Amino acid sequence: MSRLSFREQVLRVREDAIVTSVNRLLAEKGFDLMTVDEVAADVGIAKASLYKHFPSKEALAAAAMVRVLQRTSAIVDQQSAIAGISAFERLRAVTRWALEQQLSGEMPSLPSQNSSLRAELLGNRSYLDLLVQVSDRLGEWIVQAQQDGDIDGALPPEVVLYTVFARACDPVPGFLKAGGRYTDEQIVDWVLGTCMNGLRGR
Amino acid sequence: MSRLSFREQVLRVREDAIVTSVNRLLAEKGFDLMTVDEVAADVGIAKASLYKHFPSKEALAAAAMVRVLQRTSAIVDQQSAIAGISAFERLRAVTRWALEQQLSGEMPSLPSQNSSLRAELLGNRSYLDLLVQVSDRLGEWIVQAQQDGDIDGALPPEVVLYTVFARACDPVPGFLKAGGRYTDEQIVDWVLGTCMNGLRGR
DNA sequence: GTCTATAGCCAGATAGAC
DNA sequence: GTCTATCTGGCTATAGAC
What is the pLDDT of residues A156-167, one digit of tens each? Predict the structure, then answer.
């Protein structure tokens, strides 16, 4: 790890605070309804200062996605390090984490239709590398789980991967939470259960 | 059925064309990225004329949602009329229809966070009545399917209902279709299968 | 009811002093 | 790098002639 000058450390901390705000606002309101003014106000700096750190609203969103993927990658590492559990159980654990993140308002979700946003993400090396890395590692677990008979072997691994990814932006947990009748733990258990059971064959 | 004057018929046809355009654009780009100018251009009339029919962009979206619910209600009727099939099979058929609608670009999806849109929908009697009607009828099937042992009895019916509704805006079919490697029928079968299997107990 | 033209507003982005 | 003040474009909605 390289030494950073004091100035660089301050910069890091500030940008980290910005990404934290963006992350929360993206989870709360989504990309289109989030305004750069709000982000600036939330961080406590002027909008023009924000633009010294990130060149566009899209870049802010991309930074938030990169951080989420970094955290996801860390969770994947963590599950890989646990001995004596099946690939299916590892996959379940990562999916559970994603659902918990979403319920606690820390999972940003972006509209897949926005083209300027797509362009930004497709031009972001860090984002693409992390996405491929996480996808590959989850893909290995999926194939293994199919060999173990825990996931329906007739499903293309791609379908399983997307199904798991989609839990991170599933509207069901949010609706159930809004109803106020169930605990977060119940919600996670039900949604996770229906998801993972659906992947097993019959 | 009441006789309509010629003028009223022309009005109906025009408004129907408007709703058709809105429906397609909502499915394609979502509410925030859809502009009223686009809708007017797509219908082939001036924007000001559009505002003579519908008082706001939100009202346009609400009209599209009302039509979708009317069609859903018709599908529910149709399934109710079929003799000799289980409640679970009826529920599966309606869910399949929703997935097919989505894949063919005819299922509008609205952001649940937009507050002005929420207000419009909550103030729309037709929308609310249809939503309750459809929910109640699906709810009966769900309870029946649980009694039949086809759906896990430990799941609150509300969870099952939301899970089924959520398939109408699931991003997975769109991603698989964008990949271009599978037919629409395969995609529907896989997504429907993982969804319905997930609702069964173990 | 349809059009052209425009008002009014809001949000993303920037200029320029410090 | 931070600020205040401002520019700019695009979008919803409306005025007013026909």
Answer: 999 999 999 999
Q: How far is B22 from chain A (nearest CA, A)?
A: 16
- Do A111 and B28 lie within an 8 Å CB cutoff? no
Closest-lying nucleotide for A57 based on CA to C1': C12
Residue type, B38: E
> In b/e form, how buried is each residue of A49-73, taking b as 16+ CB within 10 angstroms?
ebeebbeebbbbbbbbbbbbbeebe
CB B109 within 8 A of CB B117: no
Cβ of B172 and A166 within 8 Å? Answer: yes
Q: A57-199: CATH homologous superfamily?
A: Tetracycline Repressor, domain 2 (1.10.357.10)
In angstroms, how far is D13 C1' from B126 CA? 25
The answer to whether strand D lies under 7 Å from the CB of residue B94 is no
pTM of the model: 0.96
d(CA B151, CA A91): 24
Distance linking the first and last C-alpha atoms of chain A: 50
Q: What is the DSSP letter of B54?
A: -
Q: What is the pLDDT of residues A49-61, one digit of tens each?
A: 999 999 999 999 9
User: Distance between CA B77 and CA B137 in Å, rounded?
Assistant: 9
Q: Could you state, in order of their start, the residue ranges of all structural domains in chain B?
A: 57-199
Contact call for A193 and B197, based on CB within 8 A: no
DSSP B149: T
pLDDT(B11) > 70:
yes
Residues from chain A contacting residue B172 (CB–CB below 8 Å): 159, 162-163, 166
- Tokens 């820390």 belong to residue: A106
* Distance, CA of B20 to CA of B8 (rounded, Å): 18
CB A117 within 8 Å of CB A31: yes
